[in-house]
Amino acid sequence: MNGTLSLAYVTPASAPSWKRWLVCSPLARIVIFMVLFIALNRSSSALVHLLMHGMAKTPMSSALTYLAVALLPAIVTYVFLVRVVERRKPEELAPRRWPGALGGLLAGSLLFSTVVGVLWLLGSYHVTGFNPHADWLPALLVTGIGAGIGEEIMFRGVLFRVTEEGLGTWAALLISALFFGFAHAGNPGATAWSSAAIAIEAGLLFGLLYHVTRSLPVCMGLHAAWNFCQGTVYGIPVSGLKADGWLVSTRTGPDWLSGGVFGAEASAVALTLCLLCSAALLALALRRHTLVAPSWRRR
Questions:
Q1: Which phi and psi (to 5°) does residue 246 adopt?
Q2: How far is it between the farthest Cα atoms of the chain?
Q3: What is the DSSP string of 39-104?
Q4: Worst-scoring range by mean pLDDT, 52-66, 191-205, 249-263?
Q5: Which candidate in 63, 119, 135, 189 could, as Cys together with 262 as Cys, close a disulfide (CB 3.0–4.6 Å)?
Q6: Measuring CA to CA, which residue among 40, 43, 65, 42 is closest to residue 53?
């Protein structure tokens, strides 16, 4: 199979030169998305601040605020990019793709449970109690649904997909993974190692998963399940963010094994298991001959 055939969009050769560069080119579309997203993010943030002025801040209100100022602008901006700028139907979000979200949820739950299982076998993960009253709904909305949908739209739906159209699959994997790792560099407890681990284990895995399936819902499902299981089920910080889990747990041992205060995502165990999954997806892409060459080589 020719990888070019699986691309959702390519800059039309029939478009005027100015439009090909200022509207339709990969760089232009990424810039358009970011400018509109930032504008909507700032506007919605100001509106929410005005509406909630004087109200008590609770975990649920914080979660709803996050959805309003981060997730909703990402969805609206992506719809604008696809329907108005690219003038196409979003096949990567088509109804036939959404059953794949269930597969992603199952895969994400199994993958992170395997990480925890290996940490437990190595004597690093310990359950110290149970917390049936964990405040799970805000976590589901923020680290599950919010991050799963919003980050996959931005990093796979826009950055990976559009970069692949211009620079090819290899460059898209590298660039989207680096930006994904950098996006977590400001989280509590983040280090150069944790950012690199996020880039390698998650950036490459999600990029390859999208490349192989051409489905955003399956990526969203895996991302959401990974985060929710990590924090709410196993009580491990999610990318450095404090978790209120059903299982009260601790991790011992060196940081390279336990992940330290950042969480298990900075563990060599998570890195190794995710790399194995990425290798399997890459082998599948190579067998199918779906890797996309840079645009100048396709011509």
A1: -65, -35
A2: 65
A3: HHHHHHHHHHHHHTTTPPP-HHHHHHHHIIIIIHHHHHHHHHIIIIIS-S--GGG-GGGTHHHHHH
A4: 52-66
A5: 189
A6: 65
What is the predicted pLDDT for the residue at 299?
Answer: 65
- Got the DSSP string for 126-152? EEEEE-TT--HHHHIIIIIIIHHHHHH
CA distance 124 to 117: 10
**Percentage of the chain surpassing pLDDT 70?**
98
What tens digit of pLDDT does each residue of 258-274 get?
A: 999 999 999 999 999 99
H or E stretch at 227? helix 216-228
Between CA 244 and CA 249, with CA 246 as vertex, the angle to 5 degrees is 75
Q: How many CA atoms lie within 13 A of 110 on its CB side?
A: 7
Rounded CA-CA distance 282/210 in Å is 11
Contact 212, 98 (CB under 8 A): no
Q: Which residue is listed with tokens 């895996």? A: 222
Find, among 253, 230, 252, the residue nearest to 111 by Cα.
Answer: 230
Unique residue bearing structure tokens 């975990």:
59
For residues 60 and 239, give the distance between their C-alpha atoms in angstroms, rounded to a whole number: 20
For the question of whether the overall pTM of this predicted structure is more than 0.70, the answer is yes
121 has a pLDDT exceeding 90: yes
Q: Quick check: helix, strand or coil at residue 208? A: helix
Residue 51 scores a pLDDT above 70: yes
Pair of tokens at residue 266: 């900075």
Residue of higher predicted confidence among 2 and 278: 278
Q: Are 250 and 120 in contact (CB under 8 A)?
A: no
